[in-house]
TrEMBL record:
This is Methylenetetrahydrofolate reductase. The keyword Zinc-finger does not apply. It catalyses: (6S)-5-methyl-5,6,7,8-tetrahydrofolate + NAD(+) = (6R)-5,10-methylene-5,6,7,8-tetrahydrofolate + NADH + H(+). GO terms for molecular function: FAD binding; methylenetetrahydrofolate reductase (NADH) activity. CDD domains: MTHFR. Its cofactor is FAD. It comes from Acetomicrobium hydrogeniformans ATCC BAA-1850. Belongs to the methylenetetrahydrofolate reductase family.
Length: 304
């Protein structure tokens, strides 16, 4: 099933993101994680590429196994920077032949050893990949795109950033998944702006439970996410108490999700960081709310 159809059939879509282990780490580790993530019954699981494509050889196979071994819809990340059209076709054809019909089209990061500005491959931006995929594969695939509630870290003009997003959607994106954020008000303002701009595809909110202090430095460096005062207080209070910080991080993410659901969010995409026990706790915390959406949908269908 294509993910755009899941959004059409369900009032609320709940999904996970995982990443492949490093090339030096046995693949068994990710399958152990998937064993634990199957229980919460996500609507789909996305599989990332590594930074600079460092794990891209493993990503398609894991995405295929999510679909065919675990019987969960799979969203395969596909970064295009430094790639040729033939390389992209090779990956997408393999996915389609294996029953995976969902692609998250991303620019990706240049290789770590690359000089700036990086030049290489047939694609410069995610929109180039979206256009190519839509032209070549039509409706055989569902295409997801990334969105940035606080704006892309490389674009200092929020209006221009929204303009680029609209162009990407118009080029063929079926749904959006946002970058992580810790302040829901930023997300609500972003959704309001997308509506004004005429962006009508479903938007899934990206939530990352922060369970150790090392994550924060990486997050701020990579995506520039702002940290609300409430969040900073939690970090200061539990910085030297890893167990308490994990519990506080789970609680904070749960509160975010409950508020988002109450406000009518179309989907939650949980960045699991391959920590299945964290994802399971959060899923358990919101289980009643998820069941409520299923019952609401069933009641609506009974009236038709």
């Amino acid at each position: 099933m294509k993910i755009k159809d899941i959004f059409e059939r369900k009032k609320f879509v709940f999904s996970f993101e995982i990443f492949p282990p490093k090339p030096t780490t046995p693949l068994d580790r990710i399958y152990s994680t998937l064993d634990d993530l199957k229980g919460p019954s996500p609507d789909f699981i996305s599989v990332t590429y590594g930074a600079g494509g460092s794990t891209r050889d493993r990503s398609p196979q894991i995405a295929i196994d999510v679909k065919n071994v675990y019987d969960i819809e799979s969203l395969a990340h596909l970064t295009c920077i430094g790639s040729t059209r033939d390389e992209v076709v090779g990956v997408v054809d393999l996915l389609l032949e294996s029953g995976v019909h969902n692609i998250l089209a991303l620019r990706g990061d240049p290789p770590q050893e690359a000089v700036s500005p990086f030049v290489g491959g047939d694609f410069s931006h995610a929109i180039d990949l979206v256009k190519f995929l839509r032209e070549r594969y039509g409706e055989k695939i569902a295409i997801g795109g990334a969105a940035y509630p606080e704006g892309h870290i490389e674009c200092d003009d929020p209006i221009k950033d929204l303009h680029y997003l609209k162009q990407k959607v118009d080029a063929g994106v079926d749904f959006l998944v946002t970058q992580l954020f810790f302040d829901n008000e930023l997300f609500y303002r972003f959704v309001e702006r997308t509506s004004i701009a005429g962006i009508e595809v479903p938007i899934s909110a990206g939530i990352m439970p922060v369970v150790n202090k090392n994550q924060i430095e990486r997050i701020v460096t990579l995506c520039g996410a702002s940290l609300p005062k409430k969040f900073v207080r939690i970090l200061h209070r539990y910085a030297d108490d890893p167990r308490s910080l994990e519990e506080a991080g789970i609680a904070y993410a749960t509160d975010q999700i409950v508020d988002l659901i109450a406000s009518g969010v179309r989907g939650i995409h949980l960045y699991t960081m391959n920590k299945a026990h964290v994802a399971r706790k959060i899923t358990s915390n919101i289980e009643t709310l998820r069941e409520g959406f299923v019952n609401d949908k069933n009641n609506e269908e009974a009236l038709l």
